[in-house]
Amino acid sequence: MRGGRTLRVVVTTAVALLLVVILWEGYKWMGGQTDDQWPGTSIGLPTTTDDLTMPHATDIVGELFEEVRDGRARLPLYLFLLKKGWYTFQEAAIGFTFGLAIGMGLAILMLRWRVVERGLLPWINVSQTVPLIALAPIIVTWGRLHDLPDIFSISLIATYLTFFPVAVSALRGLQSPDAAHLELMRSYAAPWRTTLFKLRLPAARAYLFPALKLAATLSVVGAIVGEISIGTKTGLGRAILEYAQRYAVSPERLYAAVLGAAVLGLSVFGLISLAERLVMKRAEGTQHADEVVA
Amino acid sequence: MSQPVASEVAVVVSGVHKVFNVDSADEVTALSDIDLTIGAGEFVSLIGPSGCGKSTLLRLIGDLLTPSVGEVTVFGKPAHAARLDQDYGMVFQHAGLFDWRRVAANIELPLELRGWSRVDRAARSAEMLELVRLPEFGGHYPRQLSGGMQQRVSIARALSFQPKLLLMDEPFGALDEMTREHMQLELLRIWRETGTTVVFVTHSVSESTFLSSRVVVLSARPGRIHSIVDVDLGDRTDDTREDPAFFAKATEVREALRGRGGAR
């Protein structure tokens, strides 16, 4: 049963990937035939399809196995990206952890005191309207002023993106138990904290996990944007920045690096999904016993 | 069916008024002039049209709401103290089980909050599952059970710490007719076996007549006690539902609901 499910995921993923490659190459081929115009018209295609703009999928994959320099060592690009990705992953993970803690903390505060919810929630919403790219240099400057390592500032930027979905969905989840559940706990004379741990937090999980998946991918975005705006010497963001500057020479390399970022995003998404299955599996009842006499 | 034993009194509601949204435009008097004494071991139904405040009255007894005027005592102490002492168990219309807990863990929840040991909890929940005749379902999750089975678990949870009073708010309202009639008999059996006092809110005339030793008929807006119908039909069985004496009592309750019959 479980094996069949894994197989299905693998097959679906492979088919989806193949489809993307076919679309990419098909579009590129069509552009080549029609001089970058929609067939039968003189309307230009949204992007040109030459090898500089759209390298062949095979070239992008091939690029992953080209040797690049990493300090004094030389190693294939995919290993290089894996190394940089690991660094970025750590930043994202720290950012995510802080974001989770802050988001949960805010949600519990807002749950406990209505006043806090009314006062804080608008600001939490406003916080996400500030463009990250504008905020990043401020955080970096502030961090360096206080002699904090850059990795801390980068993680903080990831935290900034992460805490929001956590706070909002956790609050909704904590408020999700219905009146009967709350009355039940009241009939047991359960103090607020007991109700939180026995009822509200378990009930919030179903709301929290979708947000955590979003938050995890956002933490990667935050870490990469952070790296780029800080100008660190390592990480996927650094690689992307470097390859963007050499785009004219080898566009495949930038695409490969972007691919690496996408894989990292998918990996953290997968990690949270795995955690979700571990935590929620017990609660999922799929088999019904309606046929049993009530 | 036992009549209230004068010596032991479970619930006393005296001179109670309940007003919601005091001093605002939507102020509404839910209950007015409520006096009611329920003896230990009685099975009393509260019936009335929707909006008559029967659920409100139940919640006043359980101290989930506080009366605006008047007072409620449960086993001789104020309702608030009785709640803190967990003197009653409560069953709602929807079972209100926690989806993430297995059936046994749901039944053990109140025991867990009282700090019972794991062993004692397991022993009691097994006992309770026997009582509600679901002995093999302790390891299931609520969603794997039918509505009727979930409601049995909810009753088992309410009785797990052996309260002397059981408050039930339309517990069978969401069940189909067949299941409902079956559950009524089961509830009466449990009531006889445990000797618990039951206060049962319903809007079904036949249900209240079938189950209760006394039916309290409320009228709406503001909610008042219109009359109290004594029901003495002996031990109920499925045959009771077709007994002329049962029909006569049901008619009496129905007439009272329509505002006829002797107002107290």
Task: Itemize the secondary structure elements and their pairings.
The complex is a heterodimer of chains A (294) and B (264).
Chain A: H1 2-34, H2 57-63, E1 67-70, E2 73-76, H3 77-112, H4 114-127, H5 132-145, H6 150-174, H7 179-187, H8 192-230, H9 236-245, H10 251-280
Antiparallel strand pairs in A: 1-2
Helix pairs in contact in A: 2-10, 3-4, 3-6, 3-8, 3-10, 5-6, 5-8, 6-8, 8-9, 8-10, 9-10
Chain B: E1 9-20, E2 28-39, E3 43-47, H1 54-61, E4 69-74, E5 77-78, H2 79-84, E6 88-91, H3 103-113, H4 118-131, H5 147-159, E7 165-169, H6 177-194, E8 197-202, H7 205-211, E9 214-219, E10 224-230, H8 244-257
Parallel strand pairs in B: 3-8, 3-9, 6-7, 7-8
Antiparallel strand pairs in B: 1-2, 1-4, 4-5, 9-10
Summarize the structure in words.
The complex is a heterodimer of chains A (294) and B (264). Chain A is mainly α and 294 residues long. Chain A is built from 10 helices and 2 strands. Chain A has helices at 2-34, 57-63, 77-112, 114-127, 132-145, 150-174, 179-187, 192-230, 236-245, 251-280, and strands at residues 67-70, 73-76. A two-stranded antiparallel sheet of chain A has the order 1-2. In chain A, a hairpin with a 2-residue loop joins strand 1 (67-70) and strand 2 (73-76). Chain A is globular and about 75 Å long. Mean pLDDT of chain A is 87; it is low at 285-294. Chain B is α/β, with parallel strands linked by helices. Chain B folds into 2 domains: 1-87 and 164-264, P-loop containing nucleotide triphosphate hydrolases (Rossmann fold, 3-Layer(aba) Sandwich); 98-162, no CATH class. Chain B is built from 8 helices and 10 strands. In chain B, a hairpin with a 2-residue loop joins strand 4 and strand 5 (77-78). In chain B, helix 3 packs across helix 4 (118-131), helix 4 packs across helix 5 (147-159) and helix 7 (205-211) packs across helix 8. Chain B starts with 8 loop residues before the first strand and ends in a 7-residue tail after the last helix. Classes of the chains: A mainly alpha (294), B alpha/beta (264). Chains A and B meet through helix 7 and helix 8 of A and strand 6, helix 3, helix 5 and helix 6 of B.
